[in-house]
């Protein structure tokens, strides 16, 4: 009877440790995915215009800001000299 109790309590603690390990693994994996999702991390190949469109669609930025980003990404209009002191050559 005592041997059964010792074996059962040992199995209980093994299950507790395995469960705790799984819980730590799940939390760390979930936090990593959650942090990436909430920070809006973009991969190195993601198009900035697509990222701006997604932010606009989620309501993170307004229409004016979205249109300004699109205009900035398009570059200066043809024939317009860069602003003085910007370091850019015409």
Could you characterize the architecture of this molecule?
The protein is rod-shaped, with a radius of gyration of 28 Å. With 90 residues, it is an all-alpha fold. It has helices at residues 2-39, 48-58, 63-74. It starts with a helix and ends in a 16-residue tail after the last helix. It is built from three helices and no strands. Helix 2 (48-58) packs antiparallel against helix 3. The chain has two domains: 1-37; 47-76, no CATH class.
Secondary structure class reads: mainly alpha
Strand content: under 5%
Instruction: Count every beta strand, where a strand is a DSSP E run of 2 or more residues.
Output: 0
Cα-based radius of gyration, to the nearest Å: 28 Å
> Domains counted in the coordinates: how many?
2
Give the overall shape, derived from the CA principal axes. rod-shaped
Name the helix and strand elements from N-terminus to C-terminus, one letter apiece: HHH
């Amino acid at each position: 009877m005592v041997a059964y109790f010792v074996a059962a309590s040992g199995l209980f603690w093994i299950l507790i440790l395995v469960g705790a390990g799984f819980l730590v693994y799940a939390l760390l994996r979930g936090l990593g995915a959650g942090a990436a999702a909430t920070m809006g991390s973009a991969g190195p190949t993601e198009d900035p215009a697509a990222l701006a469109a997604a932010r606009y669609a989620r309501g993170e930025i307004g229409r004016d800001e979205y249109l300004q980003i699109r205009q900035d990404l398009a570059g200066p209009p043809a024939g317009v000299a860069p602003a003085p002191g910007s370091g850019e050559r015409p």
